[in-house]
Amino acid sequence: MSFQIASMLLASALLSVSAGAAADAKRGEALYAARCGACHSVADNGAGPRHRGVFGCHAATQPGFDYSDALKHSDIVWDEKSLDRWLSDPSAFVPGNMMVVRLANEPGDRADLIAFLQSVSQGERSCKPGATMPAAAITTHP
After folding, report:
1. Strand pairing partners for 58?
2. For 54-77, how does the pLDDT look when each residue is reduced to its tens digit (9 = 90+)?
3. What domains can be seen in the chain, in order of their start residue?
4. Rounded distance, CA 86 to CA 93, Å?
5. Phi, psi (5° rounding) for residue 27?
């Protein structure tokens, strides 16, 4: 009986790894445009902050956007795990933040969105990976 349980756990773990490895950045780009595009852009701040270079940076450090105090003090670094939690339920992850809309309830959608955000974070960044920007560099959006 314990061999069957161990086999089932291993199979489940392998399926989880396979599902994570199958993230589709192209599909994530389409989801981003459809679900996030009303408030966010890769290149420019709008109602929400821009997302180019966000992967690997501390939350609330993209220049030119007025973030909530809750997000500024969250000490989050955007990676697969933190983005998955954020996209699942931003209000539960960081109570008091300004984004209260849940746009990616399905794990596959979140994985694809995260793959897209990671793809647009390659190259030049506006913040250093895992480092916060000085408060003076953070300004309000128009």
Report:
1. 77
2. 888 899 988 889 999 999 999 999
3. 23-137 (1.10.760.10)
4. 6
5. -65, -40
Total-model pTM: 0.74
> What is the rounded CA–CA span in Å between residue 92 and residue 99?
11
- Angle between helix axes 80-88 and 107-119 (nearest 10 degrees) is 130
Work out the pLDDT band at 22, boundaries 50, 70, 90.
confident
Distance from the first to the final alpha carbon of the chain:
63
Could you give the count of Cα atoms lying within 13 Å of 108 in the half-sphere of its Cβ? 7
In the three-class reduction of DSSP (H, G, I as helix; E, B as strand; rest coil), residue 108 is classed as: helix
Centroid of chain to Cα 98:
15
Distance CA 8, CA 123 (A): 41
31: pLDDT strictly greater than 70: yes
57, 97, 44, 118: CA torsion to nearest 10? 40
And the tokens for 100? 């209260």
- Picking from 140, 142, 139, 113, the residue whose alpha carbon sits closest to that of residue 54 is 113
Of the ranges 21-25, 29-33, 46-50, 130-134, which one carries the lowest mean pLDDT score? 130-134
Question: Which amino acid is located at 120 in the chain?
Answer: V
